[in-house]
Structure formats: C-alpha cells, structure tokens
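We both want to read discrete structure tokens more fluently, so let's practise on a single case. Once you have written the record down, we can walk along the chain together.
***
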Amino acid sequence: MKNLIIDFVLAYLAFGSGVGLFFLKYRVVKYEKELAAIHRTIIADRREIHALKADWAVLTEPSRLRKLIQDKTDFKTIQGKQFIQPEEIEFTPVPMPPRKPNFDDTQTAGEDHVVS
C-alpha cells in the first residue's frame, strides 16, 4: 500500500513536471521570437543611423556649405577691419519709463484701507 502511494505521488510529480516543462518551453520559444524581433529592429535602427550620419556628413561638409552660401546669399568673408573694440561703441543711456503707482505704495504704514 505504501509503495502504491509513493508510486502515485511520483507519477503525479513526473506528470506535473512534464506539463510544467511543456508550458515553459513554449514561453521560452515566445520570448526567443520577441528577442529576435528586437534584434532585427536594433539592426535596422543601426543601419538607419549609419545612413543618417553619412547624410549629415555630406550636408555639413564645409566646401559644400561655402558653395551654397556663395550661390544663395550675398554674404562676404569677414575682414579684420570690420572688428572694433568695445570702447569704440557709442553708449546712449535709455531713460527709464515712469513707475506706475502700486496699490501698496498708496497706503501709509499702519493704515487699513477700507473699501466702501
């Protein structure tokens, strides 16, 4: 009788372990598929970043920018004689606008203002 109970418990544990491993295997397969999809996304993003960096390098190339500026604008190269010293700048003080009275400024200290 004792052996029968032990056999039954062991069979139950083996069956439970088998079912558990069955579900675990499919969860692992599902997670592996998700991981593969994430890796594909990462690879695609890295390729896109690489292409964008190459585009940025072409777009910001100094000789290309210089040619665009010369063709599209009338900008000239800055000459040294265009710079001045800060002391050479004329300073004209701007008058301050008159201060508007504030409600708190019209009261005297210690007075309570009652509105009737």
About this structure: The two ends are 103 Å apart (CA to CA). Helices lie at 2-59, 62-72, 103-106. The chain has a mean pLDDT of 86.
